[in-house]
Amino acid sequence: MNVTVRLPGALREAAGARGAVPVEVAAGSTVGDLLDVLATELPAVERRVRDERGVLRQHVNVFVGADNVRDLALLATPLVDGGEVHILPAVSGG
């Protein structure tokens, strides 16, 4: 199945300046499965999303459609064919 990963400007450099990246995953895949594919296809993006233990970084939000995976099943959140995943790192400053 095909899922589109949407990236903000802060991550586009790691994705070859693309704001949307189509990713092919197996039927029944989860957000964790998607990130495993990204680790192969766009390792610089995946490293900014998960830490060395494979856990979602504290200051990164991942949305499946309009829902934050932190409010769902985290990396076990299921994906749907044709769905969108938005990766949003926290922005701070003073």
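The record above closes out task 2.4. Task 2.5 opens with a second protein, given below.
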Amino acid sequence: MGIIAWIIIGLLAGAIAKALLPGKDPGGVIVTMLIGVLGGLLGGWLGKVLFGVDSIDGFFEVSTWIAAIVGSVILLVLYRVVTGNRHSHRHA
């Protein structure tokens, strides 16, 4: 897949991850896209390591989208943990 396909998958997978885990996030579209693209890579890697499958086959393959969404959800949770801890220590 080309870089444009990864950006499209990343944008959509990141948006789906945010829809699955609603809440206030400090990031915008760029952060959503980065979480999605990195989540796709993470999901593909986890699929290969845990199940021995190549889960990133092509743009229209269901396994590609599932891997990207699962990886994006994992990264979104980690992102919220990291940024949430930083914002919760504000002093009045």
